[in-house]
């Protein structure tokens, strides 16, 4: 029970006569806030985009995890879900979109095409064989196309990754070996 | 003034903007270069190739059984119908025909695909015009159909259920019950569709008289499917060149004469009802028997050229195979409906306001990987 409470709000609350005091690590608080409101960029090139739309609908409903604010501009997005094949002509566009996003930014590679070229690995001249040749990827989802549940799992995995990040650790402190 | 003389147009104070390749209303990675005079569109130039995956070239090195899977990724909203077109072309080359049971199941699956595709289009059309709720209503029914697909084919979106000579395996025992439940649900909810969008004053204002396409232009641009039928051009392949036993079924070809966005919208709405009608005729009358004709392990088409057309949710898809007698095709060409429909976009959008461009694109119902292949 205590573990669950910690996951919901990572702080101790102390009630006082004139309000209250919250005791927590700044890293935990920032990660908690950041991981629960990731705004994805509306970016879909092919089939996987339809499954991404399915994940947004009422049956799968990614707004349960704080992803429903899909932004059409990279300036306002935290997360890019690369849904679909990236071809040579699209590669510079994707790189530019990624560069336009403000830090910290995350990438989910959705589907076999973005992992390795997938079904278009052999005998094609135009497909980029894996989106990690262009931008760094945080979470990979296999499948052609992956189910909406798989996308939700990837989003939760990304949240867990963000929750373990540190921003305010001094580099001078020697970590135990 | 020639609209095609580019350099002097911009000196006239015309404004050039780029829509896409990353833009939510282009339904993919279409890049439109738009010349504007104030808010009025002077010229639209689509730039293609942002999702060109060389499917045609890739198919030349795959066997006749294997190349079918790539077409599911072409027009992924009509994946079944694309697979069916390829299977029919190979069957034509081999000189065989699918057994009656396979044909019935093919029709059922194709019409379910058409329903789900039109429901997604309906939801996205609402989104494009600024109404968010239709998306959730459209996807509610679409998910029910996806469950049917998943149970029988094992996949939700890219099914690959068709093989040359029939279907890959028999339907799930629960298939008929599930389809009947879906039909009941859809028929009940058609009223909600009409309440939400069709009779909406704002919606009518944004679509009526917008993006006019005359029947002559629809023919000369090669438009097919609901885009052409909205202009009153009779072009339903299921009626004109029946395949898989569509000639034995009772259904109407939907024609509207308005030629504007509203007419194209009404064609698709009525087509959904016709698809329900077809499924109702078939669901209790699936013939018994084999679901696959026996074929050789390695298929080899005789030397020659084979062409087969089918009606996808967006129009006429033609598959053209040139065979030199080997185990893989010498050349494959897809005549995809979206490519031709997109070519009419400039004609429809010329003179319209920039906000109407989104409505026009929504009623053409573009799937960009089908344009680029």
Question: Any overview of this molecule?
Answer:
The complex is a heterodimer of chains A (about 180) and B (about 375). Chain A is an alpha/beta fold. Chain A contains six helices and six strands. In chain A, the strands form two sheets. Chain A has a four-stranded parallel beta sheet with strand order 3-4-5-6. In chain A, strands 1-2 form a two-stranded antiparallel sheet. In chain A, strand 5 (about 105-110), helix 5 (about 110-115) and strand 6 (about 140) form a beta-alpha-beta unit. In chain A, helix 3 crosses helix 6 (about 150-165). Chain B has helices spanning about 5-10, 55-60, 70, 80-95, 100-130, 135-155, 175-200, 200-205, 215-220, 225-230, 235-240, 260-285, 335-345, 345-350, 355-365, 370, and strands spanning about 15-20, 30-35, 40-45, 160-165, 165, 305-310, 315-325, 330-335. In chain B, helix 5 (about 100-130) runs antiparallel to helix 12, helix 5 (about 100-130) runs antiparallel to helix 15 and helix 12 runs parallel beside helix 15. The two termini of chain B are about 35 Å apart. Chains A and B meet through helix 3 of A and helix 2, helix 3 and helix 6 of B.
The side-by-side strand order for the widest beta sheet of chain B comes to 1-2-3
The arrangement of helices and strands of chain B along the chain is HEEEHHHHHEEHHHHHHEEEHHHH
Give the rounded overall mean pLDDT of chain B.
87
Full CATH superfamily name of chain B: Cytochrome-c3 Hydrogenase, chain B
How much beta of chain B, percentage-wise? Answer: 5-15%
Determine and state the CATH class of the largest domain in chain A: Alpha Beta
User: What's the pLDDT, averaged over the residues of chain A?
Assistant: 84
Low-confidence stretches of chain B: 1-8
Profile the largest sheet of chain B. Answer: 3 strands, antiparallel
First and last CA, distance of chain B? 35 Å
Q: Give the CATH architecture of the largest domain in chain A.
A: 3-Layer(aba) Sandwich
CATH topology of chain B: Cytochrome-c3 Hydrogenase, chain B
Shape of chain B: globular
